[in-house]
Amino acid sequence: MVRFQHPGRFGAAYPPLRLALCGAALLAANIAHAARPMITDDARIVDAKACQLESWAKKNQGSTEFWALPACNFTGNLELSLGGAVTREGGHARNTDVMVQGKTLFKPMDTNGWGIGLAVGSVQHPQAHTRDWYAYVPTSFSFRNDQLFFHTNIGWLREGETGRNRLTWGLSTEARLAERTWLIAETFGQNQGKPFHQIGLRQWLVPDRVQIDATYGDRNGAGTGERWFSIGLRLLSVPFLP
Fold this sequence. Notes:
Strand content: over 45%
Oligomer: single chain
Helix content: under 10%
Order of helices and strands: HEEEEEEEEEEEE
Number of helices: 1
Number of strands: 12
Largest sheet: 12 strands, antiparallel, barrel
């Protein structure tokens, strides 16, 4: 996550606009922090003095989002992210989301142990001239010598368009299927409305450096109107920052 609004992570691409922004704020609020393609964040950050780039395409009903979220850890315990999304709809592409986030850990996750952190950020929607603010606490649990993980999020979202404050939550799992292949699944939502779910696979092409993923998601009980498909690429560097 975050790093939520519609995965990413909904956005101005969905009508009506108010519902779309609400969804996008929920997904986006978790997109910046979570390891792609999860919306529910984990209690992990990029290695000290290293960076990562998470990028993906997300196909919605009637629109396609293209995301890029670089993040770096300059100090050792503060991951900073800055990126955004371009949405293509009706033959036109528009910059629909700009995100900035800071994330730190109070307790790093240990093997067969647990970890907890804090993330704070904002999502600007240039087309709607609004900005959402959010904060959340990611907690992670490791089992079976890091072969199985569970993550929980509890947070706050301030919707810029409506001025409303909302409770956000998420629950996810990661299970190793093979040496480089992981099954991922999650559910997430707000204190109002039906929650969302997402399931997919994550594959390491180069261990700890290059990763690809593919997922399917939808809102519970919503039929096909809010479903999405995504495919992503994640690149992680070795430590190189001064």
